[in-house]
Amino acid sequence: MQYIYSDHPTDQAAGALAASITNNLRLGKRVLWLLSGGSGVDIAIKTQALFATGLDLSNLYVSLTDERFGKLDHPDENWNQLINAGLNLPGAQLYRPLSGQDIVTTTKLFNNWLGEQFSAADYRIGVFGIGADNHTAGIKPGSQPEDMQDYAYSFRADDFERLTISTLAIKRLNEVVVQASGDGKLDAIKRLLNDTYPTDDQPAQILKSVKLASLYTDQKIEEAQS
User: Fold this and answer.
1) What is the CATH number of domain 2-225?
2) How far apart are CA 94 and CA 97, in angstroms?
3) For residues 74 and 109, is the Cβ–Cβ distance under 8 A?
4) Does an H or E element contain 5, and which?
5) Are the C-beta atoms of 125 and 19 separated by less than 8 Å?
6) What is the pLDDT of residues 32-57, one digit of tens each?
7) Of the candidates 134, 219, 189, which has an alpha carbon nearest to the alpha carbon of residue 1?
8) Closest listed residue to residue 26, CA positions, set 58, 48, 49, 3
9) Exposed, middle or buried by CB within 10 Å (0-12, 13-18, 19+), for 104?
10) In sequence order, what are the residues at sequence separation of 6 or more whose Cβ sits closer than 8 angstroms to the Cβ of residue 3?
11) Contact 158, 141 (CB under 8 A)
12) 39-49 vs 78-85: helix axis angle to the nearest 10?
């Protein structure tokens, strides 16, 4: 995993994303782009602002790494927050995970959509954060069934009923852009960089399995390696 220190990590992450997506679209590739909530909202908006005017987005397929289940437009919905922040990708194919249906149906539909996109896409890129509790996407420690064979699953966490992509899906990505900033993330970054834990204990470890993985942070590498 490439470590990139910056005073403005979300700007750096957005620049890398915009360049990667643009290059692949201009090569005529079908691109799957999975967004995230939290600081990932800022990254998504900054990334789209860096797309050149007139860039053909018809081969760009966009959804989320994870969502908080509930009614459409509920205040904690990641997709709703992205739209309210100004997500606007004319011509792209957008998939909103929440459908107004029950959690079982919603999970099945999301899993099916992901399966179709992973099969059809030429390039798959995802945006991730790392929680202080070592989660990534919506994958909390101990949340994923051991025999997981799906691209998405759902579970009741201590904060939300969550819908998330699985470690299987992350392994099939071509590139991940990770952003983790603030002193509260330092311990999780240290664990990720310096040790190898089972993904059941530290789900963020799965990000290291992706061939092209970059971590953008405001924590100096000397601190992360100490």
Assistant:
1) 3.40.50.1360
2) 10
3) no
4) strand 2-5
5) no
6) 999 999 889 999 999 999 999 999 99
7) 189
8) 58
9) exposed
10) 193, 215, 217, 221, 224
11) no
12) 40
CA distance 80 to 181: 23
Q: Return d(Cα 28, Cα 125) in angstroms, integer.
A: 16
Q: Which two three-digit tokens encode residue 18?
A: 């915009």
Q: Are 172 and 124 in contact (CB under 8 A)?
A: yes
Kindly state the tokens that stand for 220: 């100096």
Q: How far apart are CA 179 and CA 208, in angstroms?
A: 14
Q: Is the pLDDT of residue 209 over 90?
A: yes
Count of all residues that appear for the chain in the document: 226
Mean pLDDT of 180-192: 89
Task: Kindly report the number of other CB atoms within 10 A of residue 133's CB atom.
Answer: 12
Task: Give the pair of three-digit tokens for residue 38.
Answer: 């939290």
- Which residue type does 35 have? L
The count of other CB atoms within 10 Å of the CB of residue 11 is 15
Amino acid at 198: P
Global pTM value = 0.96
H-state helical runs in 86-210: 103-120, 167-171, 186-194
Q: Name residue, tokens 């190898």.
A: 196
